[in-house]
Amino acid sequence: xxxxxxxxxxxxxxxxxxTAASETLVGQTVADPVNLIGMIDSPFWVVLAxxxxxxxxxxxxxxxxxxxxxxxxxxxxxxxxxxxxGVLLTGAVGVLLMGYDLLQKAGIIPPGVSLxxxxxxxxxxxxxxxxxxAGIMAVDYFLIKKQRLDVPSLYMDNHAYPAVNIxxxxxxxxxxxxxxxxxxxxxxxxxxxxxxxxxxxxxxxxYFVASQVLASSPQAGPAPIMAxxxxxxx
Length: 234
What we know:
Layout: H1 3-26, H2 33-38, H3 43-65, H4 67-76, H5 83-105, H6 115-144, H7 166-185, H8 189-193, H9 195-214
């Protein structure tokens, strides 16, 4: 809980500082730390810097990036793929994809689709879909339901909450439609470039307004059941 946020913040801050200092160090702005390390003349500092890059890669991938695809592999065939096999499959896919990208950069494989660019575009589009969901969930819990939930009713029909939340679908559809419009027409590029932030903000606003107008979500769940205090003995 503490180690992951601290290490990720440290390495992210280190990247920002190095990029800002690269103009003074090498005379040009270099965002890629590996390229910047390649411009260092001292072998000692090159080895030390590469060790830090390796530690950063391992800490980030082991603690964060491996978890999701491992769970996906397990869900595909839970009887055949356990956690260990899911991790191995994830590592194998990563090695193959990175190997292809390195061979392409080295000129061994004819240049084609850039894996880095393809992944960046996919990640940006994926975040554009997750942003509205985050905004909807935050507004629904903090503003609509006032942090009060009837948890059993979430899994039951015809109880405290509707089976279909129309306001939620509207709030999700509006940012997604604007994202697709930006991609297809080339207009409003800023909306797609900042997809998670614009999607979450717009989704939150639309959901709050739509939930008030349509009243498709109860204003607040039932009050939590409080344990009764034992009667004082006389």
